[in-house]
Amino acid sequence: MNIAIIGSGLTGSFAAISLAKAGCRIDLYERLSDEELINRDRCYAITHSSRKLLVNIGIWQSLLSDLVPFKYLNVIDCGLNKNVKFRVSDLNNLDKKYSCVGWIVEHKKIMLSILEFISKIDNINKIPTSVIPNTTNYDLIVAADGANSATKKKLKTPSFKFDYDQVCITAKVLLRGVKSTEAFEILNNQGPFAVLPLGGDLFQIVCSQSVENANFNMSRSKSLFLDYLSTILPYGVEPDSIIDEPKAYPIKFELNYSFHSGKYIYLGETSHLFHPVGGQGLNLCWRDVKCLTSLVSSPLLKKNKFSIPIFYSISRLVDVLSISILTDTLVRYSRSNLNIFFIPRFLVFLCLKKSRFARKFILNIMTNGL
Ligand SMILES: Cc1cc2nc3c(=O)[nH]c(=O)nc-3n(C[C@H](O)[C@H](O)[C@H](O)COP(=O)(O)OP(=O)(O)OC[C@H]3O[C@@H](n4cnc5c(N)ncnc54)[C@H](O)[C@@H]3O)c2cc1C
């Protein structure tokens, strides 16, 4: 099968490898150089669903040295002053043997490994351009050109979208008083706040807050920003220094009404864009790739190529919808400080703290999707 992939971000590149391994001939269109693709300052939480996909395409072993495992995910509700810890024992039996809840990886390292891997695969042809390819040359066109997809605009594909009126600040900080194997999801009324281990005392913070507060915090000196961090970090955790320049990103929600249009299939952030703090974005993008690869490999659909986009749209619906609802609920839960929500919040936390079944259920959805 001849497939064009538009966009060589982490979704498009991963799709190129996975589809090429399934026997397709791939033209990979990208407007940026490899150096520009690598040069992004962000980190990803890698879940067990992504681990399985990386193992399947044969890149897991070479990535292992770049991954920082975490054994605990500590969720803290500042409004209730309660916390619940998700542990390895809350994972399903197959995932438990890896002895960690997930891994953190820096964009630079994973993008570099994936691009190196692509360069060794013969049936991937990289085309440096921003021109959207002509459909007549291909059996399928995969649009993985990101949240501001030109393909989606050209095809006028409708989507449901809104702004969170929030900004996400990311920075690398050295912290004291925290284990190097622990990740935090802190729910305060400014918005959720993630602390992700990068090895030793180094942590990535992903902190969402109102536009007004974010503008104010971004205009502060590094030492005043550190003082601010010490007010929102859990009790006993102290920030020592900021390693890089903090960066701010606006946060949007966008979900396509359909994940295909004719021969075009929308993958990754081209079809779903969420609040980053749930750590689900990239993992969900890669599950899109897994679904497409299994449809393309199906002997029945190989003979009916035109129906692959329709099957893809239907197959991805439940996973994408459930993760979008879960992530959005987390943001709204965190920001709601109305007294009326106090009892349901308390009950949710009590249930998660006391019931291993509830922890397993939530962790399994976050780890493996539906
Ligand atoms: C601050 C922040 C923190 C995040 N944290 C996490 C996390 O912890 N865990 C997680 O799983 N996810 C996280 N995410 C989400 C994650 O970054 C995205 O899900 C992921 O990068 C999406 O990759 P993508 O390939 O779909 O899109 P992109 O990375 O946007 O790639 C799109 C590519 O298409 C190219 N392109 C665009 N138009 C054209 C064209 N016309 N022709 C050719 N090429 C084109 C672009 O140059 C780009 O390289 C975070 C996001 C942000 C903003």
Q: How many strands, what sense, and barrel or not for the largest sheet? A: 9 strands, mixed
Q: Using the coordinates shown, work out and report the CATH topology of the largest domain.
A: FAD/NAD(P)-binding domain
The number of distinct helices, counting runs of at least 4 residues, comes to 14
- Terminus-to-terminus distance: 28 Å
Low-confidence stretches: none
Question: What is the radius of gyration?
Answer: 21 Å
What portion of residues belong to β-strands? 25-35%
Q: What would you say the CATH architecture of the largest domain is?
A: 3-Layer(bba) Sandwich
Count the E strands. 18
Report the average pLDDT across residues: 92
Structural class, please? Answer: alpha/beta
Give the count of structural domains.
2
CATH class of the largest domain: Alpha Beta
CATH superfamily caption of the largest domain: FAD/NAD(P)-binding domain
| Outline type | globular
Ions, cofactors and other ligands present here are: flavin-adenine dinucleotide
Helix content: 40-55%
